[in-house]
Give the backbone structure.
Amino acid sequence: MRPMAYFCFPSPRQPASLGYMTKQGRPIERVRSSFAWIFWPLLAALTLWAYSGVTRMGYVLWDDNVTVQDNALLRLPWWEATKAMFGGYYSGDYMPLALQSYWLELRLFGFGPGAQHGVNLALHLLNTALLAVWLQAFPRLRRWAPLLCVIFALHPVQVESVAWLSERKGLLASAFYFAAIWAALRASATERHSWIYRGLYFGLFLCAALAKANGLLLPVWLIAVALNEASEQPPADRRRRILVLHLPVVVLAIYFAWVRTKAYASSIPSLGTAVFDPAHLRMLPEQIAAAIGFYARTLLWPMDLSIIYLPFSTNGPWLLDSALGGLLMLLGLACMALRSFRYAALWLLFAAVTLLPVLQLVPRLNFVNDRYLYLPIVGATAWVLLALEALGRRLASKLSGHWFHQVGPMLLPILFMACGGVSSARRLTVWTSNLALWSDTVAKIPGSSLAHNNLGQALLSQGDRTAAIGAFEASLAAAAANPTGDNSALNNLAMIHSDKGHLETFDLQKAANYLLQGIAMAPRPEEAFIPRFNLALVYVQAGQPAVALDHLRSLDRDLDSSPNQRYRFLQERIQSMIPQLQASPPVPP
């Protein structure tokens, strides 16, 4: 495979060749190679600069506590941890390889977020390099490869995937998916030792699926690539070769799609049953259009990014996004119909297959998220560039061709400054602390009960109890206006009122009432596990150990029947408390 050797964008009318010379008499190919030696280190350096603050970040109040801080699996010996990670679901997900990476980090670097954030950044750099490598298999895209890699590495929408420690699964899976694409393309391009590349393709795809499902449909795109390529082989031989290469991986993808659906349903069974709900099916086309419109707008104008967004509704803020998404879908269909745009449509398919798993076919808790664009950004950007290039050729204008040739290279430094600066200055700084992150989220999504609750927790960790109580009460008000079943604010208010260290707010009866209310409003049994445990602690404080013991025994039985290993640490605490309560005398309030 030919190594990357382009910095500038050669004209379509002047293909790269040693026969062409610069004005100084140097071969054009040699000039491009020298630019490549400058370009790739510069891109790596700029990416490191743009994300340099991540190693000083802490854990985020958004899954990091569940995935790392309070994850009992990470404290187990390796073989016991491996059996648990590969043998069960964790917090509604199946990501054993990502959990293994956390386990290994804790043994290598100890407990702390700095080194773990550094690993996230290293994986992002690796993904950029792998992207540059496998793009070389597409001659018509090589001249745009530097621009694609700049956008992939530095676009502000990528900040969430790099800065959020819990999105390790997406970064790790993407590395394996990119490597699997390279192996599949090599297996298609060579006859000699092709079995080695087929084995690599299968093995790398398996590793990716064990981390995250964001690229499970990529074999569909690779099959489309193979069918699109001109070949001297007879059609029957080509089909047989494609079948031998991709069928095992397609079967693997179907299996892991089933596993991930089961994992999701284990945590949120109501969302699984909603797939065939007539109301969901009626709303699905508009939801898909709104999501596509939102992602297109976000790629073009990434100024209002947030860690969470408003839920979908059939009117209001998503109306314009639905219209934009519908227009883009029609444009995509037109690209497929027009012969000169079909190669561009191939990359639109890449964006589609990597975005399809999060387009609400199976209803999700979050309608849209920045991290969902980590892989689709490659296909979406390539589609835009190739479609514009095809449009320029279709216009048959000499000036149009020169526009691409002359202005194209100037886009690189502009993009370097724009993407790198926006990523670090406007978005990455929001992730520096929980207080900054959730203050920003509340300002952008004031109707989110979750945002107010997490801001309250951030304020409480800073010692500002009065402001924290106000944030928790704002969360309850937001939940009353837009019920979601979230009981976190009730649980947190109960913890404040059960703290003897602050007599001005200490009130066990109020704490118990908050917890009982939170248990009653839990949309599914798992959401009541922590409030039930905290209620038992309140009864212990109130001098009622027998009542607390009954609650803990009941909770222990329910935890035994739950397939979610997220609560393993909680169950260990319960099982250690039960003998103590059985042996201890009543404690006066």
The radius of gyration is 27 Å. Confidence is low (pLDDT under 50) at residues 1-31. The chain is about 65% helix and 0% strand. The domain at 434-583 is CATH 1.25.40.10 (Serine Threonine Protein Phosphatase 5, Tetratricopeptide repeat).
